[in-house]
Amino acid sequence: MEYLDIKVLDEDGKEKPLRDLVFGRWTVLYFYPKDNTPGCTTEAKEFTELLPEFEKLGVQVIGVSRDSPKSHQRFKEKHGLKVKLISDPNAELHRALGAWGKKKSYGREYEGAIRSTFILNPEGEIVWKKIKVRAKGHAAQVLEEIKKLIGTEN
């Protein structure tokens, strides 16, 4: 599980291995392309709305993009977001987990972040993943998957 040793920037801009942020509790790790873009804002708002449900189950929700901690802070303030947002400036974690690759937009092909979500158990193991997700309604789908995984299907 080398991905746990990849260093990311936490919300305070401190470099830490992913392990320090996820070890010891269930974690939803969702990758999104860019702060303040329509789909990414929708996804972050939906995770924020459902955050109390995740927290009741002992689950933390962390969003990951290449944006800087300062950009994340502005994004959170502008939209009232409560989820943690961490930075993977060189896309090292994105690449390690398959959340980076070729994309097409208006006929142009380029490499970039692929909207993806991973559920990690308290040991940091990936127990569920979905690559190329649709932003709208995704947070609710992830909540249902978490309930199945930890055995609380209420």
Structural class: alpha/beta
CATH topology: Glutaredoxin
Q: Find the CATH superfamily.
A: Glutaredoxin
Tally of alpha and pi helices: 5
Largest sheet: 5 strands, mixed
Low-confidence stretches: none
Quick recap of the structure?
The protein is α/β, with parallel strands linked by helices and 154 residues long. The protein is 35% helix and 30% strand.
Summarize the topology.
Blueprint lengths: L6 E3 L5 E3 H5 L3 E6 L6 H19 L2 E7 L3 H11 L4 E4 L4 H6 L2 E6 L2 E6 L2 E5 L5 E6 L6 H13 L4
Pfam families: AhpC-TSA (PF00578)
Enzyme class: oxidoreductase
Keywords: Antioxidant, Disulfide bond, Oxidoreductase, Peroxidase, Redox-active center
Describe the structure in your own words:
Keywords: Antioxidant, Disulfide bond, Oxidoreductase, Peroxidase, Redox-active center. It is an enzyme of class 1 (oxidoreductase). This protein has a single domain, classed as Glutaredoxin (3-Layer(aba) Sandwich), CATH 3.40.30. It has a 5-stranded mixed β-sheet with strand order 5-4-3-8-9. A two-stranded antiparallel sheet has the order 1-2. Strands 6-7 form a two-stranded antiparallel ribbon. The longest helix has 19 residues, at 38-56. It is an alpha/beta fold and 154 residues long. The chain contains 5 helices and 9 strands; from the N terminus they run ββαβαβαβαββββα. The protein has helices at 18-22, 38-56, 69-79, 92-97, 138-150; strands spanning 7-9, 15-17, 26-31, 59-65, 84-87, 100-105, 108-113, 116-120, 126-131. The protein is 35% helix and 30% strand. It is globular and about 45 Å long. Helix 2 (38-56) runs parallel beside helix 5 (138-150). The model has no long low-confidence stretch (mean pLDDT 91).
